[in-house]
């Protein structure tokens, strides 16, 4: 009797899992990303709703005493090598393609820290960022300073953005940047438990002021780059902060790229500042401009090749399915956690649905 009931539960859950994934895939296929995102994702520029199953991923007893993650803050491995981590925040936007064009013309790579709510507004632009070998990092859903939010709100900001990126490009970033650089031990502890490295910057153009402050001189952007690039006494490399959200700041991005190149720096993705550091959960190898043997087939805006090989696409699908299930369980039942635990059993024991235990697959 007991075994029979367990079997029935398994069958029900498997049916549910298949129906959810099938429905969602069908929705994405039939409507396209642009139209399907607003139906299933929160509104932009507002803190997204809390999902209890996601909140349960973080053990509060493990913070606030969390040290900064190693790496990610500096971008120069040695005195003879000049690496420059170009970073662009707050997109993807209508101004991002111009930045991508300029990067492609110079064979430079960069990291884009994206806003989750803008991912569903511009999924095609996000896909182009990936296709051209740049790195994507999480910059939250609503850009609300994280230290002003509750634990659950912080987790929701991260996971909604993660889910949007997964849906758009089938990738799960390993790097995040807190809006305005606002972070403390509590926030650091939460995002690290969610699997993220924190990537700040050490050179700020303050270009974000250009959109609202009429006194901001756009020439300050290349002016700052020149100062930084010609400072030969610097003991660390550069991670510069610019924004691809505004047309004002984005218009000066090409000039800044030229200065980086003219002064002998290699512009690359933050993940490549630390040799061979992964950028995503999935097994994707980013092209590395600092390596003479790096793959070159990913530059340019045409073609169908990706940033590298996706060795385990099924792992991507598994994480995406688990995120969808987490939302479903929180909505459908107050005992959502129990539901998720039962689903975990299905994942562990059903070779057709997942290859890894839930604890590894979920992040
Ligand atoms: Zn920002």
From TrEMBL:
Q: Name one GO molecular function term.
A: metal ion binding
**Residue ranges of every copy of the NodB homology domain listed in the record:** 82-268
Q: Which Pfam families match?
A: Polysacc_deac_1
Q: Where is this region: Disordered?
A: 291-313
Q: Which residues form the signal peptide?
A: 1-28
Q: Please tell me one Gene Ontology term that the record gives under cellular component.
A: membrane
Q: InterPro entries given for it?
A: Glyco_hydro/deAcase_b/a-brl, NODB_dom, Polysacc_deacetylase_ArnD
| Extent of Low complexity compositional bias | 291-309
Where does the source fall among the domains of life? Eukaryota
Q: Which UniProt keywords apply?
A: Hydrolase, Metal-binding, Signal
Example GO biological process: fungal-type cell wall biogenesis
Q: What is this protein called?
A: 14627_t:CDS:1
